[in-house]
Amino acid sequence: MFRHLGAWHLLFIRRTEHEEDHHSGQVAFPGGGREPADTDAVATALREAKEEIGLDPGQVVLLGELRPMHTVSNFLVTPVVGEIPWPLQLTPDPAEVARVFSIPLAWLGDPANRRILTWPSPDHPEARDVIFYDEFDQELLWGVSARITVDFLAVLVES
After folding, report:
1. What CATH number has the domain bearing residue 140?
2. Pairing, β 61-65 against β 2-4
3. Residue 5: which residues within 8 A CB-CB, separation 6 or more?
4. CA 108 to chain centre
5. How many domains does the chain fold into?
6. What pLDDT score was predicted for residue 23?
7. If DSSP states are collapsed to H, E and C, what string results for 60-81?
8. Is the omega angle on the peptide bond into residue 120 within 30 degrees of 0, that is, cis?
9. CA 19: distance to chain centroid?
10. How far apart are CA 10 and CA 79, in angstroms?
């Protein structure tokens, strides 16, 4: 997250499209899988952010972790929250990231901008409730990234 023009923003990426990746083209947070050299979720998050968007780990003020969650695609995700200075020169890896953008925290926190829909369809055997935000800057935040966002907002309210 970062502060810009007096308002907090969350940083997102849109993943590059690849035929073999069923999450390609989706909005996400920078991140990825743990590697043997990663000591914990923080190390994984910092390494992945450097690889994906060129974020220097030394520029991140770590704020904490959110509760781990299991995704429908069978991943265990531990969101790591940090603050970065802004403006900041980022260099996305085009093999992984098509776009880096942000959404204001105030917009994300407005319940009028999101809804819970049954996905993929109510009559589908794997139907489940999924959070979908309205489009923002031609990007659609939904699924696990939307769930992480809502969980983060809940932590802020509790604090």
Report:
1. 3.90.79.10
2. unpaired
3. none
4. 12
5. 1
6. 72
7. CEEEEECCCEECCCCCEECCEE
8. yes
9. 21
10. 13
Q: What is the DSSP string of 4-29?
A: ETTEEEEEEEEEPP-TT-TTTT-EE-
Tokens 């923002």 belong to residue: 136
Q: Which residues of the chain have pLDDT under 70?
A: none
Helices marked H in 54-142: 105-109
The predicted pLDDT at position 24 comes to 82
Q: How many CB atoms lie within 10 A of CB 103?
A: 19
Which pLDDT score is estimated for 99? Answer: 98
Residue 132's domain spans which residues?
2-158
* 38 exposure class (CB count in 10 Å sphere: 0-12, 13-18, 19+): middle
The chain-wide mean pLDDT, for the chain, equals 95
Measuring CA to CA, how many Å separate 74 from each of 15, 33, 42, 137, 144? Answer: 19, 12, 20, 30, 12
* Tally: H helices and E strands in the chain: 3, 10
Rounded to whole angstroms, the Cα distance separating 72 from 68 reads 13
Residue identified by tokens 């409730």 is 129
**16/157 Cα distance (integer angstroms):** 33
